[in-house]
Specification:
The protein has about 280 residues and is mostly helical. It is about 80% helix and about 0% strand.
């Protein structure tokens, strides 16, 4: 569970409503159904116009995960790549083909398949870079949906305020109706600005950060695949990939997994390693 997201939403709502009560207001003053319909209905309508259905569905599915802390897959991928590097150095890259169905990540699986098939280093890099760019663009869609909603909401709030003022102007001779119109006018503005800055934009920013974290793992996988394609030593590949793990605990976890692979593989790899150094 992502406690920071839950705490942030609760803190923002408490501060807003609590400040309203401290000013002597009541809950009924800010619970205006008409303003809710105008602001949230209008914002959602504008978002539906802006994005196709598939991207809206993707944003909704990603929003469901916003309250869950995403699992850090970096250490597991690092250990898996180093394992493949040792085995490929000892038994040949074709020996890794049986492990392809066990790799859940399509990007990792496709890159390893290209290496096993013996494609040129530059061609593998070109294919993976294109796919990486596509994954990045697709991963940013949910964030863009919420950021777009955050851009529309304040404007729709102003529109609700204008509609409320029109209602006020039409009932200047009836003082009983003036209060309702003014309330709708100002509350609609509050709904628009508050929903944008306390919900839509922060959620969009968090989704963007999560996509950046996922893409960092993808870049680490790509760097590992390119190391396999180039025939780099497993320890060199490990040092390259370690820089992608920014969290200290994740680095220590990955190091423990990698160290468990080295004693078994390094002994058998020594003759090959010596030959490689002598050729260099």
């Amino acid at each position: 569970m992502d406690k920071t997201t839950i705490f942030g939403l609760l803190l923002a709502a408490t501060a807003l409503i609590g400040g309203h009560f401290l000013e002597g207001g009541s809950l009924g003053m800010i619970l205006q159904i008409t303003a809710m319909v105008i602001v949230f209905g209008g914002t959602m309508g504008a978002v539906f116009i802006s994005f196709p259905r598939a991207q809206l569905r993707q944003a909704w599915q990603e929003f469901h995960q916003i309250f869950r802390e995403p699992k850090d897959e970096g250490p597991a991928y690092l250990a898996r790549i180093i394992e493949f590097a040792y085995r490929g150095r000892r038994e040949g890259m074709l020996s890794l083909e049986k492990d392809l169905p066990k790799i859940p990540d399509p990007f990792f699986r496709r890159g390893l398949q290209l290496v096993i098939d013996g494609h040129n280093y530059q061609k593998i890099q070109e294919v993976l870079e294109v796919e990486l760019e596509h994954l990045d663009e697709n991963g940013l869609v949910p964030a863009r949906v919420f950021e777009t909603a955050g851009g529309y909401a304040p404007t729709i709030g102003i529109l609700g305020a204008v509609l409320g003022l029109i209602h006020v102007m039409q009932n200047l001779t009836d003082p009983a109706k003036l209060g309702v119109g003014v309330a709708v006018a100002f509350v609609a503005t509050v709904y628009g600005v508050a929903s944008a800055n306390l919900f839509f934009l922060p959620i969009g920013h968090k989704l963007r950060l999560r996509n950046q974290k996922r893409m960092l793992v993808k870049e680490m996988v790509m760097a590992g695949i390119m190391g396999l394609a180039h025939g780099d030593h497993p320890r060199l590949i490990e040092e390259k990939l370690r820089g992608f793990l920014t969290d200290d605990s994740s680095q220590s976890q990955a190091s423990a997994k990698v160290r468990s692979l080295q004693p078994r593989s390094s002994k058998k790899a020594q003759p090959h390693e010596t030959t490689a150094h002598s050729k260099n």
